[in-house]
Amino acid sequence: MDAAHAQSHDHSHDDHGHKPSGIMRWVKSTNHKDIGTMYLWFSFCMFLVGGVMALIIRSELFQPGLQIVRPDFFNSMTTYHGLIMVFGAIMPAFVGFANWLIPMQIGAPDMAFPRMNNLSFWLLPPAALLLIAAQFMPGGGAGVGWTMYAPLSTQAGPAMDLTIFAVHTLGISSIMGSINIITTILNMRAPGLTLMKMPLFCWTWLITAYLLVAVMPVLAGAVTMTLTDRHFGTHFFNAAGGGDPVLYQHIFWFFGHPEVYIIAIPAFGVVSQVIPAFSRKPLFGYASMVYATASIAILSFMVWAHHMYTSGMPVEAQLYFMYATALIAVPTGVKVFNWVATMWKGSLTFETPMLFSLGFLFLFTLGGFTGLVLSITPVDVQLHDTYYVVAHFHYVMVAGALFSAFAGIYFWLPKWTGKMYNETLGKWHFWLSLVFFNVTFFVQHFLGLAGMPRRIPDYALQFAEFNMISSIGAFGFGLSQLLFLYIVIKCITSGEKAPDKPWEGADSLEWTHLPTPAPWHSFETPPVIK
Amino acid sequence: MNSMKSERANRRMMTRLSIFAVAMFGFGFLLVPFYEKICEVTGVNNLIKPAAAVENTQIDKSRWVTLEFDSNAHGLEWDFKPVQRSVRVHPGEMIQIEYDVRNNSANAIVGQAIPSYGPKHAAPYVKKLECFCFKQQPLQAGEGKRMPVQFVIDSALPADVNTITLSYTFFEVKGAAMPKAGGQG
């Protein structure tokens, strides 16, 4: 702790006079901490927008029949709920974590390309505006599903063009952000900090960033083809011109499956920091965690067609994709068992970050199991495009990625703001989220098994009870997130002062070498790691 | 000095990663010919190409297959229908049927017919030797045509398939050149 204070005094003269004030501090920011903060707030705003869309969907599905919205608007809501949550909420949230934490965890003064970092962030608001503006185009938003399958997307109204440009913009932002992260991690580590000594969060982001650079351009290619099919007379997906709509699905899922891990892997990273800290033990099987993460990333390129078993594939291809998909359960299992083994005989305490990590561990594993069920071709043919699939991916996306983001925010909030959040309210937030999440999504497994199709605003009468339960859960879950906003604001404005290291078991550089709150400039002279 | 060196290393890394990203953008487009080749090799999707020479021309007199013909024009003012609605044939028999098409619009239009089969898994057993779907069909305003389809049902057709529906849909090929005929372009 003394060392931490000495460090802050060394740099205190730099902190004064350099920090621009007012709005320009944020618009022109090249500081990784400020940019990280902006990413996190942006993602929270998008989380609320996407959440409102989800509640519109659940309101309509509260009862059978059409009560509240028109079907085309409903389709638009399912589409933009997916796009905004994936590209606007979850991905930027973890990029925000990366910005805040990677330089501090590897002992670097900032990201490798601070100006590019600024541009990566400021591409996001225009993209978000495009997605929202699409709702007001003639004909309404493009109700094509977040996967934007041809031929529907090649025939949709002008909202589709805005959506395509938004995807392009988001892709460019992600690629620049990833280049920044890879370069920072590979070139700017403190002396003595070898790759295999890095905190696991940095490892997961290094792997994720490579995935992003590899697949975001492929998505950009797919939507570019859609755009030229729509306006420039090409026939990539147009059967009349010799193209094939199924081709779109292949290209999309070549991006789409790695994308699933782009969301999940940084979540693994956060949990791998939090669980050891509250178990007061080092992470069990560090090296195997690194290799398991890399294996998941590599395998993710080889399993894409399990999303399209019903599109008509030779049976040999179905078998290959089935076995390859089931294989991913092996490295994922390694990770889950390592987290459990980390807790084994640890001195456990259950503060909010740990609770969210445990929630992640249980529910992500449950989502993984339903994924294993869906990987089996004959089962998937039955369950394809039903609510079983909806339940499955919300278990891995919400209870997986989102819960781990909450864990990370509660864990690092003291370091970021210098103040403690209210532990009692944090626990309330966790238990409310956990209960309402399961009320919302657990019943959707039953709906799917009974055959309720997804993305349709009306349903048969026998599904009424479960849908009503699910809708009640969704509103509970949504309202619980306002409590989270309140907790964060209360922490920033009137939280108790946090010590330099509020978590006994935390051991990465941001806890051991920096004061709380982390100074605006940190590690201008790199620490030496033995 | 040291920071200059690391800055150069960073830039080199950025250049490499940018090239990689651009290459992956190209790779997305490379998937198009790759996909077509795979479909061709595995025979998944060669719907509008002539079948390879039919090997087994033995006519299987022991069973009958009913072929039903369907026709659609997608967003086109074309009359398009089969001359016969259905035929009963033996597997292995050479069959020729005909479709009538007429362009009722005031413009010359180039169309492309895409076949589809019901049941889907019967598709590989319908060996088309001659079909109007093998090439684009230009029709002047008001022009009509009678177009043949010649095919053989492979004797290897699974025993549980007794009826095959062959359905064609005409799509407009936008931007295709209209052959000069009748002075209309």
What value does the average pLDDT of chain A take? 93
Strand order in the largest sheet of chain A? 1-2
Strand order of the largest sheet of chain B: 3-1-9-5-7
- Strand percentage of chain B lies at 35-45%
CATH superfamily caption of chain A: Cytochrome c oxidase-like, subunit I domain
Largest sheet of chain B: 5 strands, mixed
Q: Secondary-structure element order of chain B, as H and E?
A: HEEEEEEEEE
Basic shape of chain B = flat
CATH domain fold name of the largest domain in chain B:
Ctag/Cox11 (Pfam 04442)
Number of helices of chain A: 19
CATH architecture of chain A: Up-down Bundle
Could you list the spans of chain B in which at least 5 consecutive residues all have pLDDT below 50? 181-185
Number of helices of chain B: 1
Helix content of chain B: 10-25%
- Please give the domain count of chain A: 1
Multimerization state: heterodimer
Quickly give the structural class of chain A.
mainly alpha
